Amino acid sequence: LLDDNRQLFITETGVTVTVHPRFMLFATQNPPGLYGGRKLLPRAFRNRFVELHFDEIPSSELETILH
Q1: Does the pLDDT of residue 22 top 80, yes or no?
Q2: Listed GO molecular functions (predicted)?
Q3: What is the CA angle 39-44-21, rounded to 5?
Q4: CA dihedral 25, 30, 36, 38 (to 10 degrees)
């Protein structure tokens, strides 16, 4: 879904799914080193995303984001 083809092949069904043109994926990750068991993601995978780093978000701003 994240490469230039924007498709996913489901091996169990033999079906290829093409994403909607306006498809977007939002992902979060706890930073490696601050939490147990976290490791850096491979660079090839990280290159498929725009990385934004935030400190703790005040609850008033978080409420605005979620609504």
Answers
A1: yes
A2: ATP binding
A3: 115
A4: 50
**Helices marked H in the chain:** 43-46, 59-66
Residue type, 44: A
Asked whether the beta carbons of 7 and 16 are under 8 A apart, the reply is yes
**C-alpha count within 13 angstroms, C-beta hemisphere, residue 67:** 6
Nearest residue to 29 (alpha-carbon basis) of 5, 44, 45, 18: 45
| Dihedral pair phi/psi, residue 53, rounded to 5° | -110, 130
Instruction: Give the dihedral of Cα atoms 26, 32, 36, 42; nearest 10 deg.
Output: 80
In a domain, 38, yes or no: yes
| pLDDT at residue 54 in the model | 81
Q: Is the pLDDT of residue 4 over 80?
A: yes
